[in-house]
Structure formats: C-alpha cells, structure tokens
Amino acid sequence: MFLGEYDYKLDDKGRVPVPPKFRVELKDGIILVPGPEKCIFAYTPAEWGKISESLPTGTIASSKMRKLNRALFSTAFRLNLDGQSRIALPAPLRQYAGITEEVVIAGDNTYLEIWDKQLWEEEKTNSLAQAWQIIETIEKH
C-alpha cells in the first residue's frame, strides 16, 4: 500500500528520487503512464499486469478497446530505479503533467501519483474539500 506525500526537485536530467518507503516494492521496476488529472501514475509491474489482464481481449478488438489500449500502452514507460534509487521521468510525461522542477510523489493505495507541486496543491485542496461528500455517497449504496 502506497501512502503519504513526498516533495522532491527534479535534477538537471529529469530524475527524481523514489521515496525510501517505496523502494522495495519498486525493485522490479516501475510503469509510468499519464493520469487523467494531469499527473503521472506509477505502478509496480505486478499491479500494471493486473490492469492489463482486467481488460477484455479477443481476436479482433472493438474500436473502443483499440483506443483504450493505445491510450494506456503506447504512452506507458517501463523504468528501473538507478543506483541512487531515482527514476528519469520521460520528457513526454513531464510535459503532459506540467512538471518542471518541484515534484510531489503521492501514495494512492495501489499506485503512486507524480505531480507538479503547484498542481498537486490545487488538486489536494479540491480532493479534501470533496472527500466527505464522496464518502457519504458511497455509504448510501
């Protein structure tokens, strides 16, 4: 389970340290993909495998599935931590997420989110403001 938030700065090569608490879980690598809210999602290979296996398959995929597969898999990057437990954030993902210097790595249960610090602060404020309303909706079902 990934918990907490961690502030870092990108180095001049676009690398960011992986929080020490998560290094064991990510020893086999990390899968990075664009997240829907202008951030980067980071999965363990095992968790990414679960996502992949959960998608419907067939000999001929529907147009919706082809689009989904393109969106998920063509934009994904598999990386390994370097000797100093850093990952080099690929330029296309940094651009997508608006990450330039200050980065927040936030735990999100089964995966991590990597955010530009300013965008993270805005998202965190919005999420906290709505969290109890969402919980109350879930409890009713």
Give me a quick take on this structure.
With 141 residues, the protein is of the alpha+beta class. Helices cover 37% and strands 24% of the residues.
Descriptive notes:
The protein is of the alpha+beta class and 141 residues long. The chain has a single domain, classed as Chemotaxis protein chec, CATH 3.40.1550. The chain has helices at 45-54, 63-73, 91-97, 117-140, and strands spanning 5-9, 15-17, 30-34, 40-43, 77-79, 86-88, 102-107, 112-116. The longest helix is centred in the last third of the chain and has 24 residues, at 117-140. The protein is globular and about 45 Å long.
What secondary-structure arrangement, pairings included, does this model have?
Blueprint: E1 5-9, E2 15-17, E3 30-34, E4 40-43, H1 45-54, H2 63-73, E5 77-79, E6 86-88, H3 91-97, E7 102-107, E8 112-116, H4 117-140
Keywords:
141 residues, alpha+beta, Chemotaxis protein chec, two-stranded antiparallel ribbon
β-strand amount: 15-25%
**How many helix segments?**
4
At the first level of CATH, the class is Alpha Beta
Note the gap between the termini: 25 Å
The major sheet is characterized as: 6 strands, antiparallel
CATH architecture: 3-Layer(aba) Sandwich
Strand order of the largest sheet: 1-7-8-4-3-5
What is the number of E strands?
8
The percent of residues in helical segments reads: 25-40%
Domain module tally: 1
Helix and strand composition category:
alpha+beta
Output the radius of gyration. Answer: 16 Å
- Low-pLDDT residue intervals, each spanning 5 or more residues: none
Give helix and strand order, one letter per element, not per position.
EEEEHHEEHEEH
